[in-house]
Amino acid sequence: MEDTDLRNLEAIYDIRAFNRFFMNSLGIVDGNIPPGYPISKGRILFEIRKAEPCTFSILCNNLKIDPGYISRILRQITREGLIKRHESSKDRRSAVLHLTDQGNNKLDELINACNLMVHELIKNLSDKDIKDLVFCAKRIEEILQKGEE
Fold it and tell me: Are residue 96 and residue 112 in the same domain, yes or no?
């Protein structure tokens, strides 16, 4: 193995270790966010609200998740009454996804639970440490976005 491969392998291990540490710090070990709701469903609800109007294509592009998996989750949350599909006025082959009142309430509940999780994580940190943490989080996001270009 070349030195660059070894360096990348070590970086991969370090990033995965940080990921596990961070998820454990938030109390997310089983892929659920309190109160026991799957992260994937929560992210899809969030993306639908954020992208209004939202389509299947937008979800696939924003989440970078297998389209078949997204379809299964959409069917589940449609049956749960959290979203509605409407035919697009621009393209009859495309459906526009909207959160129902129940979907908005569920998403608000999840957002509040996630905010509380982060609050618990940082509540004993100094203002300087919180500022440093936010700076580092934004820097990580910037670096990873460069890799997507």
Answer: yes
Q: Which of 116, 99, 118, 102 is nearest to 47 (CA)?
A: 99
Same domain, 51 and 25: no
Q: Is 128 exposed, middle or buried (0-12, 13-18, 19+ CB in 10 A)?
A: exposed
Whole-angstrom distance, CA of residue 99 vs CA of residue 82: 6
Verify that 24 and 61 share a domain, yes or no: no
- Residues 46-95 pLDDT 10s: 999 999 889 999 999 999 889 999 999 999 999 999 999 987 677 666 78
Q: State the amino acid at position 140 in one-letter form.
A: I
Domain shared by 112 and 42, yes or no:
yes
CA dist 126 and 73 (Å) reads 40
User: What token pair was written down for 80?
Assistant: 């749960």
Distances (CA, A) of 63 to 12, 24, 45, 88, 91: 21, 22, 11, 21, 22
For residue 58, give both structure tokens: 């937008």
pTM: 0.82
Residue 65's domain comprises 36-148
